[in-house]
Amino acid sequence: MRRLLFIFSFFCLPVTSAGAQDTLALEDCLKIGIENNLSLQSKRKEIQKGRYGISENRARLLPQINGFVNYNDNIDPPVSVTDGSAYGNPYNVTHTLQYSANAGLQLQMPLYNQTLYTSISIARTMDEMNRLTYEKAREDLILQVCKMYYLGQVTAEQIALIKANITRLEELQNITQAFYDNGMAMEVDVKRVNINLENLKVQYDNAQAMLEQQLNLLKYIIDYPAEKQIALVPVNTETITPVALTGLSENLYELQLLQSQRQLAEQQKKMIGYGYIPSLNLTGNWMFSAYTDKAYHWFHSGPSGHWYRSYGLGLSLRVPIFDGLDKRYKTRKAVIDIENIKLAQENTRKNLQTQYLNATNDLMNNQRNFKKQKDNYLLAEDVYTVTMDRYREGITSMTEVLQDEMRMSEAQNNYISAHYNYRVTNLMLLKLTGQIESLVK
Asked: What is its main location (predicted)?
């Protein structure tokens, strides 16, 4: 294993020194991503927006004061008829003046409105949902960054192994060419080595291109400047610690979000019921009014240019009596919404429990495979080294060397795959057991 770490670290040194690259540890990527990720910034804005929503609903409980100005031109003024017996007439007919105007202030303030009180509770629940949505998005970002970082590390590890294999085949190529020049090998042996060497170089170029794409995607996820070059810290497989299997966490954000949705649906159902309760408002007005038969009289002193003041306070009681059964059907719909959320809670919990059981099984299997594939890879290296020494001494044929080289490459690929699967399974169990925050502390 020390040989693998030496090869991988040796490969990473020129990579990190070229072009003033920044070497980022996983913790650095997580901190940068949490701070800079554009999608996460949008979720933080939603939290701020939700807090404004609470203040908005509270403002409805405060007095509402509005100013107003009215001007009327009664082209054909109406008349009012009153009892005229005091004046010796059966009726007294009065003509309204053609022009009237008024200006003032109106006050309205809820004294009791259960619907408004419930709307504040709903706003608080929605604010909590915004917070949970942000935390869920943050957790998803941590998982995404970790997976991409692990993939980049594994690809860099694969590049180091391919580079070491190229060095071995170049040595084999030189030996075979010398054998051929001295009549100890056939031309077809030289061609076989050249074919394998070219295939390895193609694999090396493909892996390099893949690593570049993975690093670019990682920079996008954490919103790192695209023009800057980055390198990853080499992985040490000896320091990978298996996750503690503490069981499925009850505080997963998926479950908390559904619980908040259920609470919101129940509050909305209550709000519909509160629509049957009377509401009481305080009302008030303070105004000036003026009347005249000629508009220009308002600009002259005299009785017709006088403004009359009036003000008063009152209570307004609203009593719902019949709404065409609207609230009844809204209540029934709300009940169905609550039942659907309960079903979603049960389904999500069972799904997460299944994920946990499968991940636990995968962890044991991948941990075992990782250890076996690592041993197989190191064993295949030793076998290839022995076969190469025997070929150098002229004891073993070229066919055996190439067969062992192929087995070694296959063992290396299996090791790389097992390594990545083991780390991803470990990561998923950190999430399901509620220990994902340990990665950013």
From this structure: membrane
Do 134 and 253 form a contact (C-beta atoms < 8 A)? no
**Phi, psi angle pair for 319, to nearest 5°:** -120, 110
Q: What is the pLDDT of residues 6-30, one digit of tens each?
A: 444 444 444 434 456 889 999 999 9
Residue with tokens 């429990």: 353
* Integer Cα distance of 359 and 139 in angstroms: 18
CATH of the domain at 409: 1.20.1600.10
User: Could you tell me the residue range of the domain that residue 422 belongs to?
Assistant: 2-439
Domain count, the chain: 1
Helix axes of 38-59 and 26-36: crossing angle, nearest 10 degrees: 40
Task: Work out the average pLDDT over 372-398.
Answer: 92
Which structure tokens are listed for 272? 């519909």
Residue with tokens 């509005």: 66
Whether 63 and 258 have beta carbons less than 8 Å apart is answered as no
CA dist 209 and 154 (Å) reads: 14
What's the mean pLDDT in 36-40? 94
433 or 294, greater pLDDT: 433
> How confident is the model over 225-260, as pLDDT tens digits?
999 999 999 988 777 788 888 999 999 999 999 999
Q: Is the pTM of this model over 0.90?
A: no
Beta strands in 228-386 (DSSP E): 230-232, 279-292, 308-318
For tokens 């008063």, the residue is 312
Q: How far apart are CA 96 and CA 73, in angstroms?
A: 11
Supply angle C-alpha 252, 253, 259, rounded to 5: 100
